[in-house]
Amino acid sequence: MVKTFVNKHYRMMKESLIIILIILGFQSCVGAQKDSEIFTIYLVRHSEKDLTSNNYSNPPLSQCGAERSENLSNFLSDVALDVIYSTDYIRTQNTALPTALSKGLEISEYNPQELEDFSKLLIDSKQDALVVGHSNTTGVLAGLLVGEEIGAFDLDIYDRVYQVLIYKNSGRLHLLHTAFDCSE
Questions:
Q1: If I label 96, which of 69, 83, 162, 170 is the partner at 20 to 30 A Cα–Cα?
Q2: Partners of residue 43 on adjacent β-strands
Q3: Domain locations in the chain?
Q4: CA–CA separation, 13 vs 57, rounded Å?
Q5: Is 181 helix (H, G, I), strand (E, B) or coil?
Q6: In the chain, where does DSSP find H-type helix?
Q7: How far apart (Å, rounded) are the C-alpha atoms in residues 72 and 179?
Q8: In this predicted model, what pLDDT tens digit does every residue of 101-135 receive, in sequence order?
């Protein structure tokens, strides 16, 4: 009888401990949820385009551009992303593609002619994002996100990554550079 009482008491304590652990685990998951007031937007220019292509208005990436795009995916491998945006050009879509595949994300299109509206969407969405654009839009969009005037940059620059950290609708810009050297 004493043994039955002890076993029953032990079983109740064990069940109580499991319930407590479940509750504590749930609370730590809730506490670890992302603070929606802090998010990061990464902006890059498309990788090198194939200048020998017959498609002058919408050329694909060169071999070097494809390699750079894979390198970008590696560069962002430990970065949490919720969404990936690209213009509707082949070169921007293919620059975003390796990262989208590695993260299991779709590529959403944006209109580079509507950067002010798009910057508001990015801020209002409060999501960690990658945005692939062009030499005449990437810096401008980064500037809009932080309230600074930043213009286009040189057509030969492909290694810039604009990192915009947004906290309570206020942005801080960091200019990063990838360490990629084309094997062409």
A1: 170
A2: 131, 162
A3: 1-33, 38-177
A4: 72
A5: coil
A6: 2-32, 63-75, 90-103, 115-125, 138-146
A7: 10
A8: 999 999 999 999 999 999 999 999 999 999 999 99
Does this model's pTM top 0.90? no
Give the span between the Cα atoms of 91 and 50, in whole angstroms. 9
Pairwise CA distance, residues 116 & 170, whole Å: 16
Handedness of CA 178, 35, 132, 172 (dihedral sign): negative
CATH code for 38-177?
3.40.50.1240
pLDDT tens digits for range 136-158: 999 999 999 999 999 999 999 99
Pick from 21-30, 72-81, 150-159, 171-180: least confident: 21-30
Closest CA to 86 of 97, 76, 72, 78: 97
CB 92 within 8 A of CB 132: yes
**H-helix or E-strand containing 104?**
none
